[in-house]
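request received
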Amino acid sequence: MIGIENIIFLIVAALGIGLFVWQIRKIRKNVLLGRDVELADNPSERINKTLLVAFGQQKMFKRMLPAVLHLFVYVGFIVINIEVLEILIDGIFGTHRVLGFVGPLYSGLMALNEILAALVIIACVMFLWRRNVTKVPRLATGVEMRAWPKVDANIILVVEIVLMLALFVFNIADMKRVLLAGEEVVGLYPVSQFFVDIFGEDPEQLYIIAKVGWWFHILGILAFMNYLPSSKHFHIIMAFPNVYYSKLLPKGKFTTNPAITHEIKAMLDPSYQPPAPEVDAEGNPVMQRFGAKDVEDLTWKQLMDSYTCTECGRCTSVCPANLTGKLLSPRKIIMDTRDRMEEKGEHPAIFAPNHYKELGVERVETTDEKTLLRGYITPEELWACTTCNACVESCPVNIDQVSTIMDLRRYLVLEESAAPASLNAMFTNIENNGAPWAFPASDRFNWADELYVPSKN
Amino acid sequence: MEENKRLVKVPTMAEMAANGEEPEVLFWVGCAGAFDDRYKRVTRAFVQILEHVGVKYAVLGTEESCTGDPAKRAGNEFLFQMQALTNIEVLNAYNVKTIVTACPHCFNTIKNEYPDLGGNYEVIHHSTFLQQLINEGRVKVQGGEAFKGKRITFHDSCYLGRANDIYEAPREVLAALDADLVEMKRSRANGLCCGAGGAQMFKEPEPGKKDVNIERTEEALATLGAGNGVIATACPFCMVMMNDGVKNKEQEETVKVFDIAELIAQAEGLSK
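response:
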């Protein structure tokens, strides 16, 4: 029975999905602003990591309470999507609970859905509580946690609660209507069964309530999907590719720039022939900056990192610099990268970059330069990093904050010679004495003087 | 010189090569190990252990130069590669296969970053090396100072721990002392940096409320509790930072900072 309602639904669904695809293309374009980097090696190890860290939420479990609450929402999201599939089919073809034919399996699924939906509501309420009442420091503080990220987080939680409530409204009204008609209820509804009488006994009214619940749920999902690209909640999609493409090498291994190697080899050995420089489509040599000044100097993976960030602040909460009151916050580095990328490239439906200067944030002394470095991220932040990798270790979605910090630092040193004076002195010592301190190289072996061990006899 | 001691003549690669010999391991001393007065004692303790167990080792002596690690972490990739390429030339000329070092920064750089530039070696941190010597029974951890019941807490170096996933080797070395090992709340993968990594060792900290080493020392002191205790480290920079922290807290009379190699040398009766 395909009627006008089904056609309206089809149009709305097509529009919602189309808009989403349009936004995703923008995001993709932004990520591809980044430099190319080869990250396709070791697919089996990458798949393993994705299963453990992304699907298995492994790194979330460093903190038990949020991990369990998050697991409810995560599993709820995945399982309830099966019902969403049914909703789509029902909506298009005018069927009613079309997957019901699988019998006990369907009952189990519906029962699981209801329990998960209830757990999602409980988890979201507790998340709201943590953000707004107990004000967990990593969620509530930091210069980067201005108005928009806070509103964004609350919007997500409230919308999730409302969507789950709409699901219950539909299930309750639908079940009562079916019961009144003397038909058999398809599926098991362990939560809704307790509320089956709350909407009265008027079949007409119940039909309308069920319809409203149904439409609200599906429209809510379509709207929410289109909200994702503007939100930290986009992590529900990006977490998977981001973990897949994460660093498989030891965390201590920083990248080596081969262009510099060629330059040094040519310096040391005049007969050395460096490879021909890379050329673009028109045959002009590609000028590569040493280090990163702006988003296009970072790799696509580093840009993808910033779309994966859910602003949870675990990185910042374990950063030794941040813990001791320095300006550096690894989360800010990642959020600034996203803001700058969307400012320079495309931006999704809602765009609210963090212009610290305009916002009057005095502690972050940015300049008017339209670049990631200085326009958003100040040298003071970069020089506070100890490269200890605590942020990288703590990130549940394998963002590499240190790599971005290092590339920005490299620009300061290699292109601007703008290192702090004490570091320049260290460089000079290494050049002259082969040690970071001003000791003569000829004294290097003095430690071995007058050294004794007990003789064995 | 007392009769029961012998003077050590530390062999260099140059001498070995001149005699047509090759050592089992090259001991990479590092700049801190060669120049920092406090860390020189660690270098000497480690050599005493090598001599004691009869490992065939050699050092580069004055031919050694900075790995380039501080330059690289400070963003000076150019200077890093200059150092690295020069060092690799020296190491490859001596046909070096295995390197042991007491510095996690040298360890990380040579192990992880030199291969891209043509330097491929088996690189071992001294914590792993000592662990092997103990496991093989070559170091018996007896004949010297007794550590039984002494409270020791191990401070993880970032470049050993998170950077290279070596958490257990230094702990197993310490376990051989039969001491009372206590863990700080932030340890292993969750360990807190001493504040010196990423070339911070060579600059003043950025403006903030507190120095990182003070934060970490407070945690270590709280973990050790009242009375005598030892903060064990396995990195020259951590050692400087923790020593400064203990002095800042005026606890240097009761709390000592030692490298794991020094503790083993003491327990083995090598450092009298």
